[in-house]
Amino acid sequence: xxxxxxxxxxxxxxxxxQFHIRDLAEYFIRxxxxxxxxxxxxxDTPLPTYVVSAGRAVPVPYNGSVARLNFGFLSAARVRxxxxxxxxxxxxxxxxxxxxxxxxxxxxxxxxxxxxxHTSNPRSRAMIAAYSILQAALEKISAxxxxxxYARRTLVEHLGGDAVVIPNGVDVDFFARxxxxxxxxxxxxxxxxxxxxPRKGLPVLMAALPKIFAECPDARLLVAGRGDEEEAVGNxxxxxxxxxxxxxMVSDEDKARFLxxxxxxxxxxxxxxxxxxxxxxxxSAGAPVLASDLDAFAQVLDxxxxxxxxxxxxxxxxxxxxxxxxxxxxxxxxxxxxxxAHVRRFDWSTVGADILSVYETVxxxxxxxxxDDRGSPGLRARFGLARD
Length: 388
Hints:
Layout: E1 2-6, H1 16-30, E2 34-39, E3 51-53, E4 58-62, E5 65-69, H2 73-86, E6 90-94, H3 101-108, E7 113-117, H4 125-129, H5 131-138, E8 143-146, H6 149-159, E9 164-165, H7 172-176, E10 188-192, H8 202-215, E11 220-224, H9 229-232, E12 244-248, H10 252-261, E13 264-267, H11 277-284, E14 289-292, H12 295-300, E15 308-310, H13 315-326, H14 329-342, H15 348-374, H16 379-383
Parallel strand pairs: 1-2, 1-6, 2-3, 6-7, 7-8, 8-9, 10-11, 10-13, 11-12, 13-14, 14-15
Antiparallel strand pairs: 4-5
């Protein structure tokens, strides 16, 4: 199958959507499919052979963060050329409502289109206001996927229609077989995320550290991610700052080793999360997880069965839960075991197969519609496909 995948966000700025698309593409390539990914990227960015650059992206505030998107006449021309050259059996657009390549592709593409919705934002005024503009493009979509029930709910409330829920995928074994780094072991709390993005919640964790360190004198915090390190510890008492170590951006391999090494992974995110891929990665590596009680996080953690939850944006609740877990090796061992079993449902062997089934359904539907044009009526309505 010839598969075209559209990434809305800049390929050279790491993020959950980009990682999902990368891993999905490589999963399909391993199965023998032909895959091309269209993504914004700076001209000097080294790209995998399967990625085609749609040009430089610009930063735009989006969903409580700053996304690097690509839009305009030049981008539209590159989209049309990519579609023409690819002659894809199916086009898979991620975040088709963002002002980026996905929307341009919706307008330009013919044939089967699958769309994945990642955003969870139940109060998106922008999406409501843009509905009339988006409607014509969205009507061309053959099948919709949401990465969580909360992303599905956002889609239903703002745009109508429905979607099948297929979560983000992870190569579970990649994390499970990583070798721990002895330098990162021993009373370590771990955090992975953009330091300078408030919704990732590092300030909440920093506010909880004095109480955690007072009760657990051997504990320390390891932070993996980009951002202003001095600002991050600015409100932490000076005598405690030596117990916080910043690792900067880490490779995929080092992230896996990091998660295999720590005693407790903390996800203090405050909102705007539709899934929680880092929780899945942490469970895959066998790290006990403590996360804020966002709806999406609770779903990923089996409502607290595969990881502990604390009250969102409450440093005292975070500190109390962390101290309890750091002092209870048996409880942490139980979370490791349950998390490792629970996380298998997110492995690419399951997630990728489910997405491929969607592709096969829409391409079979398109073939049936083509036959319907030459024969009996009814199949077009059955598969819900628009006439090209």
